[in-house]
Amino acid sequence: MRNVLITGGAGFIGANFVRYLLQAEPGVQVINLDMLTYAGSRENLMDLPNPGNHQFVQGNICDRSLVERLFEVFQIDTVVHFAAESHVDRSIIDPEPFIETNVRGTFVLLEAARKAWLSRAGLANSQSEQAVRFHHVSTDEVFGMLEPGDPPFSEISPYAPNSPYAATKAASDHLVRVYGHTYGLPYTITNCSNNYGPYQFPEKLIPLMISTALEGRPLPMYGDGQQVRDWLFVEDHCQAIWTVLHKGDPGNTYTVGGGNQLPNLEVVRTLCEILDECRPESPYLPHEQLITFVADRPGHDRRYAMDSTYIDRELGWKPEHTLASGLLKTVEWYLEHPEWVDTIRRGVDYQGWLAMNYGERGGI
Ligand code: NAD
Ligand code: DAU
Q1: Alpha carbon separation from 251 to 136, 183, 241, 248 (Å, rounded)
Q2: Is the CB of residue 222 below 6 angstroms from any atom belonging to ligand 2?
Q3: Looking at ligand 2, which residue's alpha carbon is closest to its atom 8?
Q4: Where are the domains of the chain?
Q5: Which of 106, 154, 198, 286 could form a disulfide with 307 if both were Cys (CB 3.0 to 4.6 A apart)?
Q6: pLDDT value of residue 364
Q7: Are 364 and 222 in contact (CB under 8 A)?
Q8: pLDDT at 126 over 70
Q9: Are 101 and 85 in contact (CB under 8 A)?
Q10: How many A from CA of 293 to the centre of ligand 2?
Q11: At the top level of CATH, which class does the domain 3-199+232-259+299-321 belong to?
């Protein structure tokens, strides 16, 4: 791993991973390709460690000539592919960008990797299987929904996506696997549960609830709030990806979870309690009074959970954060970075999004 193309490295997990990699591997050159959609920002890349090893390129992963040029100019040997449209609610309102970026964008990257790394018959002579790697960052949502007593999803769970977002991520997983099976592309995939932590765009559940509670506005709880997610602190996810890049076997998939399965209502109540303690002078105490039940997400999956036994046993990865320690770090980070939230919201039509997503639900 010398010249690493990170796609979507100005988004939430990508920016955390860029930071992680520059710190962990001072000898690695990072080429960060990001289109800067509403979800990506240069603000997420301020004060990077070893900034001389990071080059930002603003561009679209669907732009084939750009992607091919980056492979050639920077002699890319490793791809870590985060770039995606990632918000389920947005995919329900307008699925098209999800098809374009998540499916076609992944295809363009795979084709560029095939052209750069493989001969017609398979791996080029100059490249051993160990010398190149295409790592695809995917989600638990490709497996669909669990019933209350079901065991968690694992590497052998069948695909059964339920939202336009999940369907496009499933398609991208299949494409990656096919490039391995048909052309011999050395790939790995991680399917991960819900992340939270610093730099998460404030329209996803946890940062939305923190920033909205601080303003004393209603906290919109979809449906009955009993949907269960398996929460993973973003640094633990970065470490899992890094571990797979170093120790994972090409052609393998790893399911990655936080081991923290909680209904949304409990997560938001915990956040409110942390805010009560951190902001005892707030006029909105107790923040829990702000929780407001609104119309549910169409097709809302009731439960996800991930089994991390395989990545733990084979590669020795397990999460370091409990939900309590991760949530506390996250709340503290948002309290210490109000200007980040302001800048991020000002850079996009944030009010427009709130009106579109929450207007008909009863508003927030
Ligand atoms: P995000 O929405 O915060 O960031 C996505 C980034 O991709 C943004 O910087 C955006 O500008 C960029 N991007 C979008 N379309 C692009 C395009 N066509 N060309 C170049 N860049 C483009 O997403 P995230 O939450 O950081 O998720 C990153 C990846 O991890 C996604 O693939 C997502 O499916 C996966 N994932 C996310 C979670 C989670 O809980 N957030 C969990 C499991 C897997
Ligand atoms: O499971 C992994 C997935 O987690 C990733 O693949 C996605 O990219 C990521 O966005 C996330 O998807 P979710 O739909 O689970 O995340 P979100 O933060 O949008 O919602 C979390 C839960 O909270 C979900 O059950 C819906 C609920 N919710 C969300 C919002 C934004 C609310 O109740 N109210 C809200 O306002």
Answers
A1: 11, 12, 15, 9
A2: yes
A3: 86
A4: 3-199+232-259+299-321
A5: 154
A6: 72
A7: no
A8: no
A9: yes
A10: 15
A11: alpha beta
